[in-house]
Specification:
The protein is of the alpha+beta class. The protein has a single domain (4-80), classed as 60s Ribosomal Protein L30, Chain: A (2-Layer Sandwich), CATH 3.30.1330. The chain has 4 helices and 4 strands, in the order αβαβαβαβ. A 4-stranded mixed sheet has the order 1-4-2-3. Helix 3 links the parallel strand 2 (27-33) and strand 3. The longest helix has 14 residues, at 38-51. The relative contact order is 0.31.
Length: 81
């Protein structure tokens, strides 16, 4: 999986902001942790599908959080235009 884009991104947002940003067309790419809860993952997947957005799956929330430079796990993040 390609996390380099995530590490180089100028602006990334977490789960709540991801939903809003998808609705307003500001998202370039979405990253989802495979081990995140379906209640979190499935609604975002559906929004991405409707908006024809690329979704990159990461093995774990811990790995995704680390790639974002945070010390906690992350269920989803998005790169914003």
């Amino acid at each position: 999986m390609d996390l380099q884009h995530l590490k180089e991104a100028k602006k990334i947002v977490g789960m709540k902001q991801t939903r809003r940003a998808i609705a307003t067309g500001e998202v370039v790419r979405v990253y989802l942790a495979k081990d995140s809860d379906g209640k979190v993952k499935n609604p975002i997947l559906e929004l991405c599908h409707k908006a024809n957005l690329e979704v990159i799956f990461v093995d774990s929330m811990k790995e995704l959080g680390t790639a974002c430079g945070i010390e906690v796990g992350a269920a989803s993040v998005a790169i914003i235009k």
